[in-house]
Amino acid sequence: MDKNEPSRVTAPAKCSRCHAEIPNPVVCDYCKSVNPGAAVMDYFTLLGVPETFEIDESELRRRYLTLSRHAHPDFHVQEDPEVQQLHLRVSSTLNEAYQTLRDPASRAAYLIECLGGKSMAEDKSVPDGFLATMMMMREELEEACQDGNTEECKRLGKVLRTQHDGLLRRIGELFEQYQQAVACRAVTRGLLAEIRQQVNAVSYVKKLLSRVEEK
User: Fold this and answer.
1) Is 6 left (phi over 0), alpha (psi -120 to 50) or beta?
2) DSSP string spanning 148-205?
3) Domain 1-102 falls in which CATH fold?
4) What is the largest CA-CA distance in the chain?
């Protein structure tokens, strides 16, 4: 493992209480005990989906709902307080994992860090020329809103949505390139940096889109 990649909590092969083999990392199907490590497990492993940008969102939701029913504290009110707290922590982690992986932009940001790339706090860069474009779009949007020009606001919203979707497509392409070049660390580091720029750009576009939707 590269020194920059985070350490992982792997899915257990057997239950820590009854030692039966378990098919998922959250709860034992036999004794129904929750795995304490699930609260600190990476989101892809926790939800049992491949560590890739392109995932089956319907399968993601199915697995989340199944695991949540097992882990939710409301189903374990008769347990000891310590066990209830464990269920609460695991349920909270499941919710956070699902909300992160169901959104393509947040999934990309999380995957970058899983692969050893920089977080947005560490790298706030965006593609060349992007900020100038965003400044122009913001000015046009503010002017249209001040003038009460609803049609112009809608037009700008469509332009921003097109740009948003284009950035996500580019992120998908870059992750595919990453998988093809995974043996070369120099290439993959550069790709992760470029993906980070694209993800940062998505966050800017989302902010402007939210302003359009408020109008």
Assistant:
1) beta
2) T-HHHHHHHHHHHHHHHHHHHHHHHHHHHHHHHTTT-HHHHHHHHHHHHHHHHHHHHH
3) Helix Hairpins (1.10.287)
4) 68
**Model confidence at 12: pLDDT above 60:** yes
| CATH classification for the domain delimited by 130-214, as one of 2.40.128, 1.20.58, 2.60.40, 3.30.160 | 1.20.58
198/104 Cα distance (integer angstroms): 12
Residue range(s) occupied by CATH 1.20.58 in the chain: 130-214
Place of tokens 């995957």: 111
Instruction: Give pTM, 2 decimals.
Output: 0.85
Q: What is the pLDDT of residue 7?
A: 47
Q: Quick check: helix, strand or coil at residue 89?
A: helix
Q: What is the pLDDT of residues 90-149, one digit of tens each?
A: 888 999 999 999 999 999 999 999 999 999 999 999 999 999 999 999 999 999 988 888
Burial track 168-191 (b if 16+ CB lie within 10 A, e otherwise): bebbbebbebbeeeeeeeeebbeb
